[in-house]
Amino acid sequence: MPRVLLIEDDPSVREGVELGLRRRGHEVRAAATGEAGLAALAAFRPDLLLLDLMLPGMNGVQVCRQVRERSQLPIIMLTARGDDFDVVIGLEAGADDYIVKPARTEVIEARIRAVLRRLDDGGTGRPAVEVHGALTIDRTGLTVTKAGRPLALAPSELKLLLHLSAAPEQVFSRQQLLEHVWEHSYHADARLVDACVARLRGKIEDEAGSPRYVQTLRGFGYRFGPL
Amino acid sequence: MRRARTRSRAAVVLAAAVPLLGACGIRATDVVEAGGPASVQAFLDLDSEMLLFFRAPDGGLSPVIRPAEPSAGFGDAYASGSDSAYTAGPVPTEKVVTTLLAGPDEEDRAAGLGTALPAVRPGGSVAVEPSPDGGVSTRLPLALKDLDSTALRQLTCTIAYNRDADGQVLVRLEGRDGASHSDTCGLARGAPGNVPGAS
Amino acid sequence: MTTGPGPRRARRAEDRGRRGDRPTDRRFPIRAFGLRTRLMLAFLLVAAVSAGTTAALTYREARTALLKTAQDTAVSSFRDHVQQTAFALPVREEGIEEVLRDLARKGKPRPWVVFAEYGSLRASSGENPVSTVITPELRAAARANPRGSFERVVKDGVPYLTIAMPTVFRTSPDSLLPSGLVLYAVMRMTDEQVNVDALLVAARDGALPGLAVALIPGLIAARSVLRPVRDLRRAARSLGSGRLDTRIPVRGSDELADLASTFNESTGQLERSVRELREAEERARRFASDVSHELRTPLAGMLAVTEVLDEDADGLDADTARAVRLVSAETGKLAVLVEDLMEISRFDARAAELNVDEVDVGEAVRKTLQKRHWTDDRVRAELPGGIRARLDPRRFDVVIANLVGNALKHGGAPVTVTLRTEARSPGTTVLITEVTDGGPGIRPEALPHVFDRFYKADAARTRSAGSGLGLAITLENVKLHGGTISAGNRPGGGAVFTVDIPLHAEEAGG
């Protein structure tokens, strides 16, 4: 079972979520502030970070940025609906997904599982390592290098790249990507996709302004290539 | 309500405008008096001329100037035989009355003048004498009661203007029938009502 | 609410203002009997009456003076000439015409025709011895009264001056006696007519330019009177479009200035009242929003542990288990209610955002039905493929889910969802979504209220599974898309909800 670090300032939410997840078999460590959470990170070495955005002192977005500077730990934000602006900033800061409070434990756990789940290869006989231009994608080792230099991709970024590159030149709508990459519903927030694409482009493209690998088809969605 | 008011207002405006606008051009007028009559030259010399009054066609009196020729020689009208005809002064009244009674002459008739007096038998005498009240009394050789008002005024005016240049003399007529009539002529200017044709 | 509802609301108010202005925003139109026309007409009427009256009076006076001069000159001149003439009495026919012609030649200001009447004698200086112009009245007056007189006669359109001059002669230095001779002079007044006509033309030509000149001050005066009225109208319109701080500059101290200051006072009071109302409403809204926010945090904790309760309920004694399950179930409902309240608050605060994306509408509806497991016979869908629209998928999902859920709950199976597009002039295509059910339909008296918050169509059902805000939220979501929603009953029975959303509503989004 995954180890989850929960950073949440409100005691009842913290306790409720911790309780719910622990009942489902997760190993949970809870922290009340961003500072405390960051401190616990090294010792606890969680598989996933559950991060409340509204924190006293160091806020969730800052925590997110600090974590991303060092690791590609999966991060799920806890947010309240209507705090749209914070969601966008959080996603830009590198969060992989977000959950709107209040949420049942089963919803939270489903999100956690989705983020942690490896992409299903489909078992086709495609080679484990593919080369697309300067990019080398190792589907088995789950590493991506650009011109021989390894790229640090967050879990959602990696999954998005793997999904798109598995069918080069095929157009995926945002809704399809939400369903397949994030395991969200068709009607979920497409900004999740857009923010992730933007982050991914920042890492793999030569010029983020004129992308080669992840291309936009206005009105339809995204596709990989053609190079 | 409001419409009626508007209409009446328009009517007022129209009523004011119509006489102003309608009075264009030169219009006819009624008869307008403008000053006195024209005083013409008639060259009347009462010392040698007689002023007789005949009847105009409209019924009024019309004065006629007749020279008083020394006609005693062959005139039979000078019944009184007075010698005053040859003296200075007005023509003797008896002669003037006799001439009037003789009627209009040809010239008078040509102008449409006539007389209301009856023809008098020649030989009838006319006697004139001043009255004590400043007037004149005349006895006539005819019956007064047969005379109409025009005839009486012919006699009165003729005698009055003979006796006085202003014609303002009370004249008393006595007829052969004993009737008498007293009056002044009243034809002088400024005496309305006595003017001929005033009917 | 970091997105700041303030500027957004202000912009909407502006939009409304502009929309309100557009249909009638023309500069003071000239109406058939508007104030301007009436003022101008009154001004012109006054100018016309005064110019006309002045011209007419001047004309009359001038004409009278002109004619009087001509007449007086003619009469006195005629008398003078007659007085210098000698006549024998009785007047003789021979020679009289010569005398009359002599008189006629001396006519002033123009030759005239002279007629003489004496007894039955008739003579003239002209061809006819008797004039056809002299009236019996003039003759009678001359005969009745030995005074000069004249009469103006218009015969066949030609004006004549006829003068009657009875003659007298002197019997003594003090006495005059009518001679019976009446002299008449007849003079055509053509010159006078020309002069009078010239006068008339002059009067008219003076009055008409005067009238035209009066038009300019008339226009200026009308403008100065109308300017405050126009200000007032602009202000009233501006007020009507929501700018309650509108004030009118008060100029001068006339009645219109009084009106302007009254208007300003009234708008001031109105502004105060509206501000108070708005503040009260704002407070109420903020309160609802704050309450929801405050409820949400404890709910988040509670909702996370409801599963624990549900799982462990089986191991408890019966009463405790029922209590625990009740708490769990009601916590879930409370969470839904609070979420809906939050959503409504955001609409009220105009903080709701539209995150549009171009989607296949048929697929979106299908996914909505799948997500709620409405894939059995209860819900049928007629979804033609290939309809693409720019929508906020999450909000569209809420609309469809609420309508279908409402139909299942209050109407009855089968519920049918149909999609179609319809071209509306000009060049706009509308996406029409219809949700019909097989129930008894909505009672007519309930129809106007189905979108009201917490409205219960069935009085007996005091509490439903939903929050009571579902259709209200649906309405707000449709409005946010620039669309409309309506509820009705089908002829064959069953309720029908129709949603119209502009297909290419790119501008409608945020």
Automatic annotation (TrEMBL), chain A:
Modified residues annotated as 4-aspartylphosphate in this record: 52
DNA-binding region (UniProt annotation): 126-226
Domain OmpR/PhoB-type: residue ranges: 126-226
GO biological process: regulation of DNA-templated transcription
Keyword Transcription regulation part of the UniProt annotation: yes
Keywords from the UniProt entry: DNA-binding, Phosphoprotein, Transcription, Transcription regulation, Two-component regulatory system
Residue ranges occupied by any Response regulatory domain in the UniProt entry: 3-116
GO molecular function: phosphorelay response regulator activity; transcription cis-regulatory region binding
Gene3D superfamilies xrefs: 3.40.50.2300, 6.10.250.690, Winged helix-like DNA-binding domain superfamily/Winged helix DNA-binding domain
An annotated GO cellular component: protein-DNA complex
Bilayer-spanning residue ranges: none
PANTHER family tied to this protein: DNA-BINDING DUAL MASTER TRANSCRIPTIONAL REGULATOR RPAA (PTHR48111:SF21), REGULATOR OF RPOS (PTHR48111)
Listed name of the protein: DNA-binding response regulator
Species this protein is from: Streptomyces pilosus
Automatic annotation (TrEMBL), chain B:
Name of the protein: Lipoprotein
Record key words, sorted: Signal
Top-level lineage group: Bacteria
Region (Disordered): 179-199
Signal peptide residue numbers: 1-28
From TrEMBL, chain C:
Keyword list, A-Z: Coiled coil, Kinase, Membrane, Phosphoprotein, Transferase, Transmembrane, Transmembrane helix, Two-component regulatory system
One cellular-component annotation, GO: plasma membrane
Superkingdom of the source species: Bacteria
Primary site of residence: membrane
Ranges of residues in domain Histidine kinase: 290-505
Ranges annotated as spanning the membrane: none
Name of the protein this chain belongs to: histidine kinase
Species this chain originates from: Streptomyces pilosus
Phylogenetic placement of the source organism: Bacteria, Bacillati, Actinomycetota, Actinomycetes, Kitasatosporales
